[in-house]
Amino acid sequence: MRQAMVLDIREIEKYYSISEDGMVYSHIRKRWLRPQVNNYGYVHYCLTFGVPRVMWVFAHTLVALKYIGAPPTERHEIDHLDENKQNNHYSNLVWRTHAENILESYRRGRRGHWLGRNKPSPSLETMLLMANAKKKPVVYVKDGVEIPFGSIGEASAGLGTYRKAVYRAIKDGVELKGGILYFIKDIAPTGV
Predict the structure, then answer these.
(1) What does each of the 192 residues of the chain score in pLDDT, given as a tens digit?
(2) Architecture of 3-107 per CATH?
(3) Of 27, 80, 105, 124, which one is least surrounded by beta carbons within 10 A?
(4) What is the 3-state secondary structure (H, E, C) of 81-117?
(5) pTM for the full model?
(6) CATH class as words, domain 124-183
């Protein structure tokens, strides 16, 4: 759930004033709160009153909730129109879905990190480690006889079927070629 859906701006405004450009004044402490900038360059504040628990809240979220209104759906997030993460004026903010936000950033000239470059290939050792980590031992039970396999791939080869069919049989708990399959870490299905 997005941060904006958790916050009640009316409750927050009982304790804080939020300016058009994202500055926050505390009525309790009688001073402006010091803005902090996170590792991604977004301005945020630590709010202690008017929120469910002490939490860091983005300035752009507070400004959007006060001056633009609630997000249309819980899937909406804030987009900075000028791409300046520290410009939190309400005229620079708009609600968008994440997909719309990404598409708009590419329209404005964003380039992907790997665009025009070759990704370095992982080493052979790393590839083997990744492949072995994916292998989960499987057991095929038919007529009370258990046949162990080292992985879904081995089970599909041994049973003469596709990997996807083996995976679906395990996931959905349905029979495959008259028997039941399960991962060894799982508990064996009863009634077989």
Answers:
(1) 466 667 899 999 999 999 999 999 999 999 999 999 999 999 999 999 999 899 999 999 999 999 999 999 999 999 999 989 999 999 999 999 999 999 998 888 887 777 777 778 888 888 888 887 778 899 999 999 999 999 999 999 999 999 999 989 998 989 999 999 988 875 555 554
(2) Alpha-Beta Complex (3.90)
(3) 124
(4) CCCCCCCCCHHHEEEEEHHHHHHHHHHCCCCCCCCCC
(5) 0.58
(6) mainly alpha
